[in-house]
Design goal:
It is built from five helices and eleven strands. The chain is α+β, with helices and mostly antiparallel strands. The N and C termini lie close together (about 5 Å).
C-alpha cells in the first residue's frame, strides 16, 4: 500500500501532475543534467529525472516528520473526499491538458523549470482545491507569504497545514552548500540552460502521492512502481492502504 512506503523519518502527501514525466522529457533532461553535472561545482545537487514533477498542492509537507500507519490511514480518509469534491467542481479540468516546459532558471536556492500553464489547468485545479479545503474547514497557505492563518483539515488536524504554490514549476538543482565562486556557478548554469528547447507536455491529470522521501526521491523502476506511491488519482479504481 502507498502509505506503507513512508519511512520512519518522513511522510508527506502531495498532489502532483506529470509524474513520472513523459519519456521525451526524461530523455531531454538526461542530456541537460549530464551537462549541468559537468559544468557546475560539486556543491550543486542535480535531481534525477525520476523526481521531476509539477506540484499542484502540498497536502502535508514531509518536513512535518513521520506518520504512523494509523495516521496515514486517517490522512487518506480525510483528504479523499476533499480531492473528490475538488474534482467534481465545474472548473476542474476534464481530460488531458497542456504544459510548456521552459528553460531552467536559477531562483534563490534552486534551479527550476517554469511551465506555461497553456490551458490554465493547474491554476484551475488549485482554485477548486482551495474551495474544497475551505468547505471542509481547513485554510491553505498560498505562495511564499504569511502562513500564520493557514490550518489543517479538522478531519486531519496534524501540522503542517496544506499549501498551494503560486508558480507552476519543477525543481532540477539545489545547492548542498554555497559554491566557492557563486558568480561563476551561475554563469555556468546559464550557459547550459540556454541549450534547453522548450517542450510541450500532454498531462493526463493529477494524482495524490505519499512523499516518503524528501523532494519526491522515491525509488521506482517504471509506471507501476511509481503508482505504488499513489493514494488518489482521477478516474482510477480505489486503492487499498493497509
Amino acid at each position: 500500500a502507498a502509505g506503507d512506503r513512508c519511512t520512519d523519518d518522513f511522510c508527506g502527501a502531495v498532489l502532483v501532475c506529470s509524474w513520472p514525466m513523459p519519456p521525451e522529457v526524461a530523455l531531454a533532461y538526461a542530456k541537460l543534467s549530464a551537462s549541468l553535472r559537468a559544468a557546475l561545482p560539486p556543491e550543486a545537487y542535480i535531481y534525477p529525472a525520476s523526481t521531476l514533477h509539477c506540484t499542484v498542492a502540498t497536502l502535508r509537507a514531509f518536513t512535518g516528520g513521520p506518520l504512523d500507519t494509523d495516521a496515514r490511514r486517517r490522512l487518506v480518509a480525510a483528504w479523499t473526499p476533499v480531492l473528490e469534491a475538488a474534482r467534481r467542481a465545474p472548473e476542474w479540468p476534464k481530460g488531458e491538458f497542456q504544459l510548456r516546459m521552459g528553460p531552467p532558471t536559477l531562483e534563490g536556492a534552486a534551479g527550476i523549470f517554469r511551465y506555461e500553464d497553456s490551458d490554465g489547468a493547474v491554476w484551475a485545479m488549485r482554485r477548486c482545491l482551495e474551495a474544497a479545503i475551505v468547505a471542509a474547514g481547513g485554510v491553505p497557505a498560498i505562495g511564499g507569504g504569511d502562513r500564520s492563518s493557514a490550518k489543517p483539515l479538522p478531519s486531519f488536524a496534524v501540522a503542517p497545514p496544506p499549501h498551494l504554490p503560486d508558480i507552476v514549476h519543477s525543481t532540477a538543482v539545489r545547492w548542498s552548500a554555497e559554491p566557492p565562486d557563486r558568480e561563476a556557478a551561475h554563469a555556468a548554469f546559464g550557459r547550459v540552460a540556454a541549450s534547453w528547447a522548450p517542450l510541450g507536455i500532454t498531462v493526463q491529470g493529477a494524482r495524490a502521492v505519499f512523499e516518503s522521501t524528501p523532494y519526491m526521491h522515491m525509488p521506482y523502476g517504471d509506471e507501476d512502481g511509481a503508482a505504488a506511491h499513489v493514494f488518489w488519482e482521477e478516474d482510477a479504481p480505489r486503492r487499498e492502504h493497509d
